[in-house]
Amino acid sequence: MGERLAVRKTYKLYIDGGFPRSESGRTFPFVSGGGSEVVHLSRASRKDLRMAVRAARAALAGWTGRSGYNRGQILYRVAEMVEDRAATFAAQLELGGSSVSDARAEVAEAVDLLIWYAGWCDKYVQVTGNMNPVTGPFFNISVPEPVGVVGMVATSAPVLRGLVAGVAPVISSGNTVVVVASPAQPMIAITLAEALATADVPAGVVNVLTGFPAELAPWLASHMDVNAVDLSGVHPDALPDLEEAASHNLKRTGRWETPDANLYRIAAFTEIKTVWHPKGR
Amino acid sequence: MVEERVAALATRSIKREAKMWALRTAISMTDLTTLEGMDTKEKVRQLCHKGIRPDPTDASIPSVAAVCVYPNLVGTAAEVLEDTSVRVAAVSTYFPSGQAPLDLKVAETRRVVADGADEVDMVIDRGAFLAGDYVKVFAEVAAVREAAGDACLKVILETGELGSYDNVRRASMLAMAAGADFIKTSTGKVSPAATPAVTLVMLESIRDFYSNTGRVVGMKPAGGIGSAKQAIRWLVLLNETLGVEWMTPRRFRFGASSLLNDLLMQIRWLETERYQSPDYFTRA
Lengths: 281, 284
Hints:
Largest interface: A-B, 10 and 9 residues
Distance between the termini of chain B: 40 Å
Radius of gyration of chain B: 18 Å
CATH class of chain B: Alpha Beta
CATH superfamily of chain B: Aldolase class I
Strand order of the largest sheet of chain B: 7-6-5-4-3-2-1-8
Structural class of chain B: alpha/beta
Structural class of chain A: alpha/beta
CATH architecture of chain A: 3-Layer(aba) Sandwich
Radius of gyration of chain A: 20 Å
Number of domains of chain A: 1
Oligomer: heterodimer
Helix content of chain B: 40-55%
Shape of chain B: globular
Order of helices and strands of chain B: HHEHEHEHEHHEHEHEHEH
CATH architecture of chain B: Alpha-Beta Barrel
Number of strands of chain B: 8
Largest sheet of chain B: 8 strands, parallel
Strand order of the largest sheet of chain A: 7-6-5-8-9
Strand content of chain B: 5-15%
CATH superfamily of chain A: Aldehyde Dehydrogenase, Chain A, domain 1
Number of domains of chain B: 1
């Protein structure tokens, strides 16, 4: 028997719970640090992006309607699935140039971040909401609610932890998200999508597109059915144009330099609703 | 054969200026419809205003062809649409089943016309048709034709219940011979409703009827046409089968409720190059 042929994985997009190729049929190559390995990934088109936003919109009501407790359970399950794939993630990070120890550390940090945000799902309302003091016989209560569909240009610093630090807070409050993966190590984003797909995250809650952020981000930023954008992965020079595009429907925009555990990343993608309620005398 | 031709025509790519023309033309061909048990006068008034001025932010968007309602609401629609280009269409003859005695169907038709309907959408008796009682179907259409007077008569075949393309063609010919001004696919209450294949069969019937008799009959697909993309495919079918003379609201209509907003969204997408959200378009 001769030498066994390599069985290579086809990296596709993640839209509405499925893994389609780009409708455009395009691919782009990822060349590893040393040039030793070339991986071809789907290069999403603006039409793929449109389908992803449609899926995210359709998934929104169901995901927002879950209890925070249930979303927490599901995020914890995502952490379990990422832990289970630790070796795969580490190997892909090493392909991108990480040392063995750095790669392992980054996977562990990503899992810890997921568990941290899983814990916040049924608690952020109590902490970021408030009972406001008012003069008069009323309760005045401010509660945060998810903004809706969030678009995200993921950071590459560092790629797995940055991605998790972006997605976890956004979905923890009940938003759905369309992620444009960083082209630095795009396989990571698709492997994360595989973890999400097997972790009880409903179809459409997270959608992942690989390709060229410079091509996709303007369509995402100007999309009238996207309610907020996380531009953490955007080069500062490109920010003004994207923020201008995002302004047409008054999207919230956010950008974070460090992929930390940060309650304010949940708060940034919520809208405060304030209600008055009579309390008698 | 029918399906193959439809599939081939569905691959036509209509872009930019041609697409803009098609979208605007499709709006002007729309019979904006509400046929729900829970319809109210206020809902119909809102729908009429939407039909007159589909996009409040853009006066260049044409009005729809007609607003289509149940008999109870004809008076309400006629009040709002008076002195506008938008016509009042009423479903009649015990829509959607048509299971009632002929004298009641005739009385209902007289009543909706008296109340202000410019157009009458009648249903054929599918039970009689499928039982082979074509004489009864023909006589009913002819009687309603007479009762409708000068109103435009659209005859709904309910193709989803007819079973075969042969039956669709036979029913089309029967309706046209009995005096239909338009033939219409469906009530919208039965699935499948308007399919491209059924539409093609009916368009070809219209073409053959025209070449035999010289009488022009219009076509109205209705039910299940919710997207601009579908509407454009229908216009391609129309253009390829009956030609440009039929590309007018006087000879072709879309029966639809949600189609209008998708057409408006597509127009704004072409104008702004920004993907659109239903949040920014009126509901009614």
